[in-house]
Design goal:
180 residues; alpha+beta; two-stranded antiparallel ribbon
C-alpha cells in the first residue's frame, strides 16, 4: 500500500543530480544538511527524500554560499561556482553510522603515502623551494661536528664524488684548450 504524503506530490521523475549528505555534529539528530546543485529547490529535495528514503520533511532551509574571489594567474581573478546548501528538518531522527576502524578495503595506506608524496612534490615546486636545502642533505653543523671530532677527514667535494681532478677531463685534448 503506497504511503500518502502529507503534502502535494510533484511528478515522478528519475533524478539526474547528486546530493552530498554532510556530517554535522552541531545539529540535532532530526536535522540533515546537504550540498545540492544550484537548480534544486526546496520542493525537489522534499519530494526526493520522501520518494527515495520515505523521510517526511517538516521544514527545508536553503542558502547559496558564494565562494571567495581567487587568482589563477597574475592579474587574472575569477570567482568559483557558488555552492547551494540545504538543511532539512525531518520527523524522525537520523543517526550516522559508526566510523569504520578498518580501512583496508579502501587502501588507506596507499592513499596516505601518495598524498604525502604529492605534498613533497608541491613543496619542491613552490617558488621558495630554491632557497630551501634538500631534505636528504646533511646540515652544515653535523658535518662540522664530524670533522672536528676526527671521525671524518675533510676532502673537497669533487674528490669525495670520485673525480680525479676537476679540470683533468675538461682540457684533455690540447686542441680544445682556449687560446688567449
Amino acid at each position: 500500500m503506497p504511503r500518502l504524503a502529507p503534502f502535494r506530490i510533484g511528478r515522478k521523475q528519475v533524478p539526474n543530480f547528486t546530493l552530498t549528505l554532510l556530517r554535522t555534529p552541531y545539529l540535532p539528530p532530526t536535522f540533515a544538511s546537504f550540498i545540492t546543485p544550484l537548480n534544486i529547490n526546496k520542493l525537489d529535495i522534499r519530494d526526493y527524500l520522501f520518494h527515495v528514503y520515505g523521510v517526511t520533511c517538516i521544514k527545508v532551509r536553503s542558502y547559496v554560499q558564494q565562494q571567495r574571489v581567487r587568482q589563477s594567474a597574475p592579474r587574472q581573478w575569477y570567482r568559483p561556482r557558488a555552492v547551494k546548501r540545504m538543511t532539512v528538518e525531518m520527523d524522525k531522527p537520523f543517526v550516522w553510522p559508526e566510523a569504520p576502524t578498518d580501512f583496508e578495503p579502501w587502501s588507506k595506506e596507499t592513499f596516505d603515502a601518495a598524498h604525502e608524496e604529492q605534498d613533497n612534490l608541491r613543496k619542491q615546486m613552490q617558488p621558495s623551494a630554491d632557497t630551501l636545502a634538500p631534505m636528504d642533505r646533511e646540515t652544515l653543523a653535523e658535518q662540522a661536528e664530524r670533522l672536528l671530532s676526527g671521525k671524518e677527514k675533510w676532502r673537497p667535494q669533487w674528490q669525495a664524488d670520485g673525480g680525479a681532478s676537476r679540470s683533468a677531463g675538461l682540457f684533455a685534448n690540447p686542441e680544445s684548450r682556449p687560446h688567449f
